[in-house]
Amino acid sequence: MQQNAPRTPMESGLSIVEIMGAGDFGEELEPASWQERALCAQTDPEAFFPEKGGSTREAKKVCTSCEVRAECLEYALSNDERFGIWGGLSERERRRLKKQAI
């Protein structure tokens, strides 16, 4: 019997840093130094990738006191991250920020 693939970051057993470091084809890349210092590395990944309509409050609270928040946000903007909370902003908030910068 074949096992079903994990549907959520929590089910995969990966940390948020491991998820962020994964390449397009699923290979594990060495995390950037800012990712090693990210507070989210010690937090449940589910908080950063809530189901549609789910709360982002916990993730944003973690981001508020994270020393690498700016680097995280820059990474998300540069790589056009479409899902999750990055640098304290949701995908919608990042889109708005990019539009304002144009």
From TrEMBL:
It is found in: Cytoplasm. Keywords: 4Fe-4S, Cytoplasm, Disulfide bond, DNA-binding, Iron, Iron-sulfur, Metal-binding, Transcription, Transcription regulation. Binds 1 [4Fe-4S] cluster per subunit. Following nitrosylation of the [4Fe-4S] cluster binds 1 [4Fe-8(NO)] cluster per subunit. Its cofactor is [4Fe-4S] cluster. InterPro entries: 4FE4S_WBL (IPR034768), Whib (IPR003482). Pfam families: Whib (PF02467). GO terms for cellular component: cytoplasm. It comes from the Bacteria. The Fe-S cluster can be nitrosylated by nitric oxide (NO). Upon Fe-S cluster removal intramolecular disulfide bonds are formed. Residues 39-96 form the 4Fe-4S Wbl-type domain. The keyword NAD does not apply. Its main location: cytoplasm. [4Fe-4S] cluster binds at residues 40, 63, 66, 72. The keyword NAD does not apply. One of its GO terms (molecular function) is dinitrosyl-iron complex binding. GO terms for biological process: cell redox homeostasis; negative regulation of DNA-templated transcription. Acts as a transcriptional regulator. Probably redox-responsive. The apo- but not holo-form probably binds DNA. Belongs to the WhiB family. This is Transcriptional regulator WhiB. It comes from Helcobacillus massiliensis. The gene is whiB.
